[in-house]
Amino acid sequence: MKHTLSVLVENKPGVLSRIAGLFARRGYNIDSLAVGRTEDPAVSRMTIVVEGDERVVEQVTKQLHKLVDVIKLWDMTNEEYVDRELILIKVHADPATRAEIMQIVDIFRARIVDIGRNSLIIECTGDAGKINAIESALRPFGLRELVRTGKIALARGQKQKD
Amino acid sequence: MSITGAEALIKSLEAEGVEVIFGYPGGAVLSIYDALRESSIKHVLVRQEQAAVHAASGYSRVTGRPGVCLATSGPGATNLVTGIATAYMDSIPVIAITGQVATGMVGTDAFQEVDIFGITMPITKHNYLVQKAEDLPRIVREAFHIAKTGRPGPVLIDIPRDVSGVLLEKYEPVTQVDLRGYKPTYRGHPSQIRNLAQMIKEAEKPLIYAGGGILRSGAHEELLALAERINAPVTTTLLGLGGFPENHPLSLGMLGMHGTPYANLAVQQCDLLIGLGVRFDDRVTLSVEHFAPNAKVVHVDIDPAEIGKNVLVDLPIVGDVRLVLEDLLGLVEEKEHPEWIEEIHRLKKEYPLTYGDGKSKLRPQYILEKLAELLRGKEAIVTSDVGQHQMWAAQYGKYVKPNSFLTSGGLGTMGYGVPAAVGAQVGAPKATVVAVTGDGSFQMHMAELATATENNLPIKILLFNNSYLGLVKQLQHFFVEGRYTGVEFTGNPDFVRLVSAYRNACGYRITKPEEVEPVLKEALHNGRLTLIECVISDQELVYPVVPNDKGLDQMIQFPGEE
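ok -> structure tokens follow
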């Protein structure tokens, strides 16, 4: 099962390496990891999606807690939260298919952000399901390149407590 | 008055009460060594940097304070790595300081540059790459705080040469630590401790399984009080030896792969297993499915990540084991279980730890028994290397005081014994320090004989020479049908002559049982650096042995004399 962890860390050199290294050497599978600074410039928030059963995820969270640079962390999986991912897709588009692609973009409330001679770059945000859906909808036209940010998430309501 | 970064570093170390640094100089630590000249801190120059960490570890274990070691950048730093990993696995507080190339050169593959910050991330409790000299007092304060609190461990501080060389306007001491991500839990949860008291009340066959955490938290008195009050036998791990007096009727000695037969059998029979400051290591449990099958398992440890990692537990308590025991002792009443104690006596009688006859030929077990006898009642510290001799030293040493047996348990680092003895003797100048070693392990760090003689450290090295890597040979004997590969030493030196080449040092050779007592007596009282070579048979095996995939009751026991 996939778990979404929200991890507040000190914004210090080496912190990403500490966390990535911990996952690698203990054999935990990172599905995605997104990191950026928070309202406090000294603190970054990492959203980590990790695959594993309850026992594995318990170990992951305990091992993360042991890192001095980890300030707080929550397993949001069973909480109410909003999550988003951003995808940029460069899709093959000639005059014959362009209209159809634009329809798909509309349906997903995505946007075209660049037009080339035979391609379009499409930007779309949403939860993982929506992102997967637009990716497969556009696949038949020929995906040139794509990039995804990985999931970011925040708990709904009040600021997350321990 | 201006001050260099290096001077600020040394002042900060002095403020932490550091009295000695084990180290090895080099280009990237020139200003640190320069600052050390003016300091009250004594420097012990080792012969290879790994020995500096082991010595700092030995020093830390006997003094209870973090040991400090210092090395230059590049190879100096990488030589520390095995030592740091050794300290990390055994939760020993060590501060490792390394030089680094100048900040402007970092990342350019400069001469003697290595990313020791990156390399040591997985083997330190925390580490630092210092960016500004102004940060040094804070970082040193944090490093000591992190190293010695919570679950102790090594902390590395990597200091670029320009950071140690730069002039600061003034030195501002730092006394407070503010680490929002580091808050160890010391007090156990009261309701969990009440639950433990209840489980103890209900248990008919309680057994205490005590580890290195007892020594790290200084809980030996509380452990003794608990064991006596609830009449529970106590078995310790390799690292827990000395945490419970082995001459006590409730002591079962060590458990695990080479544990005493009665300890292992008692674990399999008990109905309540109280793990205190342990981590259910695979050398203790062997097959986890078969471990303590009849027991409810309690796990007390300061590191929450240890709980539930290797075995599922019925009652977890996160906290400092001494404080948890203190609280627990307020709740438990005296208990008697005559049948269980009788069963323990039966196990001890019917399944003793034995090696047969020590009188007709020279046996390592006999020598270690004699050593234990001669050290009894003295301020004595035994260190060991890694191999058969380590297991015999663990089995037959009969340790009664905490931190009287220093060994590399978790990492199993050959070469630990002699440098750890150097550090232990520096930390406890009046103690009799004996390094028990083998011909394999000794040769990994025999250069440290020079460190010992240079510092007038009268350590005793008890070397078991069978001209083999005995424990590997033993593994090949049991598990690859006796196909011995890469385990024979045909080029060993004459160890007695070797040690005699050092100033104010001497050597003895023991080949017969009747020589053991007189030679040991003389060696222990000669006040000099001494090596005692014991020439033993390469057929000696460590018994019992529990194979990896078996339960603790599936021991291969001593088969008796041929």
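Chain A has a mean pLDDT of 93.
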